[in-house]
Amino acid sequence: MTKFKLFYHKLTHWEYWPYQVLYFPVYFQYLYYVIRTQSFFFFNASNPTIKNGGFFMESKKEIYDLIPQEYYPKTIIVTPDESLEIILQKLTSENINFPLIAKPDIGLRGTAVKKIHTTEELITYHKKAKFNILFQELIPYENEIGLFYVKLPNQSGKITGIVSKEFMIITGNGKNTIRELLNQDIRYVFQIKALEKEYNDKLNTVLKDRETINLVPYGNHCRGTKFVDASHEITPRMVESFNTICNQIDGFHFGRMDIMYNSYEDLAKEKNFQIVEINGAISEPTHMYDPKHTLLFGWKELTRHFHYMYLISKHNHKNGAKYLTFKQGVQEFKNHHKHYDRILEF
């Protein structure tokens, strides 16, 4: 597939556009809210118990600690200087077995998230990482969604959108290699370079007829997952259930919950699911990335949710939640960029 064809596809499919371009209308909305709140960092108050409201530099482990244990997978946090012996002791004490998921405690759009199968792979990951790591048990459910939850002032919470995630699952035909099958889907072609680093020569393997492989077992758009708008699955029973769940998460008012689950019916009954993670103020209404949606729809969803965040932040501020000072906010941005560089080195 030619470079021009790939470039043209990106140009004509706005889901691939850089966020700096996509968020153009939001910049004006943001400046208006800055004037109204007299703070460049008003979003800090959107989720008062999460660092920076969940906009940047928030620890996933600290967010997990806010969630009742039964709702998320067993997780340990490891620093870069901890020994293998200590790491294995932690895993054993929490009964976390291989395969497991490794990811940065402070994440960056799915970068450095990896499925770990053996102790040797764990050692390799730990040696490369220059950041705190979460090792997490593998969630047993196959389906994943992003569920956007908003609790507006003086109202019950509501689900404002659901995105279903279609993983990069390749099905063999007994003839073509994995690489050749990837080249048949332009969405996957964009991922081949990253997959080469992870799988090396395995991409030249010929899968048996109807044999499947999930090359990226976590739902991240930047890693090839297709986002499909499943907001039609929202029901009053599901909203009631997530009000029950989210009311147990102290200080959580605005954000997207990434969830692995068995079925929508079970999910509405608070059964057979686990929260992969919660994203706060930085959350996108990712159902907008469904290829069927127009750019205007995407802008509408972005501005709608940004307005919700403003209303929540202003209300929480009146009730004692603090905005970041300009000096604090600038320092956090600097910290974010330093961490960004460390993640990209991985």
Describe the protein.
This protein is of the alpha+beta class and 346 residues long. The protein contains 13 helices and 11 strands. The chain has a 5-stranded antiparallel β-sheet with strand order 9-6-5-10-11. Strands 1-4-2-3 form a 4-stranded antiparallel β-sheet, with helices on one face. A hairpin with a 7-residue loop joins strand 5 and strand 6. Helix 3 packs parallel to helix 12.
Which band does the percent of strand residues land in?
A: 15-25%
Report the strand count: 11
Distance between the termini: 28 Å
Poorly predicted ranges (pLDDT <50, ≥5 residues)? none
Question: How does the helix and strand content classify structurally?
Answer: alpha+beta
- Helix fraction, binned, reads 25-40%
Side by side, the strands of the main sheet go 9-6-5-10-11
Q: If you average the pLDDT, what whole number results?
A: 93
Cα-based radius of gyration, to the nearest Å:
21 Å
Largest sheet: 5 strands, antiparallel
Q: What spatial form do the alpha-carbon principal axes imply?
A: globular
Write down the secondary-structure element order: HHHHEHEEHEEEEHHHEEHEHEHH
Number of helices: 13
